[in-house]
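Below is a filled-in request sheet from our internal design queue. Each sheet records the structural input a requester submitted and the sequence that came back. We keep these sheets so that new team members can see what a complete request looks like end to end.

REQUESTER: design group, bay 2
PRIORITY: normal
MODE: inverse folding
CHAIN LENGTH: 302
BACKBONE (tokenized):
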């Protein structure tokens, strides 16, 4: 299950790279079908998601008055029959916008349901998170999930999942039960409803996810840990040198390895960890030996 989960949520960027490599050959005898226009698809996707939100509800009454041993998991159902008087999701979600990762002139609407904010640490988009989750198609059919807590590196997840999780807080603490399981207190619980452009678009990772599928993820956020991917002493979130909200394009020494994954950011033969100072409280300072305004760890001739 963990192997399936990790692949299902892998970032679209890496999937796209693999796909582009596989399409290099022009003589494979296969007809290439061009992808749909992302701008037009975003409009159709939003209509489909809003129709779902108008006709479905979640177990909000359980969250308002939690029954004994309630697990704070979101359950979504259709507004009909005995549930005809339920409040639709559309009136309970927050509308957010995001820019397409590959086409900056295309924007998407996605929707967040904050059933329970959580009271612990909040992750950034590059951090590690401990979650339980369920992935569904817009018809409410489940294609993936984990009822047991599983760690995700958010930088390696699809855009919609990543942007949804960082809106929540983890638990304030946990206790270990006699059977080895853990019970978490005051954790976050929510859902994100995303268009295909923030998910897999025309490159789904498995047959269980159709092309251009709008997706729903419900989740609980249990823990959030600050990530340092290259273990160089600088938190990954602080390796966004140009402050553009992405750590994938910061590569000081232009060696093809972004700084957050590069143990020697300036390629001067001295490890980044040895060119910074970390005090007993974990605070990081950046010496500038030659006084040129560039800290040593980014200055190859310091």
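RETURNED SEQUENCE:
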């Amino acid at each position: 299950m963990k192997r399936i989960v990790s692949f299902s949520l892998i970032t679209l960027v890496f999937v796209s790279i693999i796909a582009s490599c596989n399409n290099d050959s022009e003589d494979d005898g296969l007809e290439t079908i061009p992808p749909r226009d992302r701008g037009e698809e975003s409009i159709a996707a939003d209509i489909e998601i809003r129709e779902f939100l108008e006709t479905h509800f979640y177990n909000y009454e359980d969250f308002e008055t939690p029954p004994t041993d309630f697990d704070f998991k979101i359950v979504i159902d259709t507004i009909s029959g005995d549930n005809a008087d339920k409040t639709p999701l559309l009136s309970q979600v927050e509308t957010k916008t995001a820019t397409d990762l590959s086409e900056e002139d295309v924007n998407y609407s996605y929707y967040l349901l904050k059933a329970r904010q959580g009271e612990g640490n909040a992750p950034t988009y590059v951090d590690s998170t401990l979650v339980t989750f369920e992935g569904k198609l817009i018809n409410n059919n489940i294609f993936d999930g984990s009822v047991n807590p599983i760690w995700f590196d958010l930088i390696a997840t699809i855009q919609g999942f990543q942007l949804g999780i960082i809106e929540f807080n983890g638990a304030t603490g946990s206790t270990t039960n006699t059977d080895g399981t853990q019970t978490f207190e005051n954790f976050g619980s929510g859902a994100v409803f995303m268009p295909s452009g923030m998910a897999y678009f025309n490159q789904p990772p498995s047959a269980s996810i159709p092309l251009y599928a709008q997706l729903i993820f419900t989740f609980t956020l249990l823990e959030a840990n600050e990530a340092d991917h290259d273990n160089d002493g600088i938190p990954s979130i602080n390796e966004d040198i140009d402050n553009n909200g992405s750590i994938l394009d910061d590569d000081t020494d232009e060696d093809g390895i972004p700084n957050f994954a590069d143990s020697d950011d300036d390629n001067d033969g001295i490890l980044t960890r040895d060119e910074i100072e970390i005090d007993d409280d974990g605070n990081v300072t950046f010496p500038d030996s030659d006084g040129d305004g560039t800290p040593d760890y980014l200055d190859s001739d310091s």
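SHEET NOTES:
- The two ends are 49 Å apart (CA to CA).
- The chain has two domains: 2-225, 228-302.
FILED BY: M.R.
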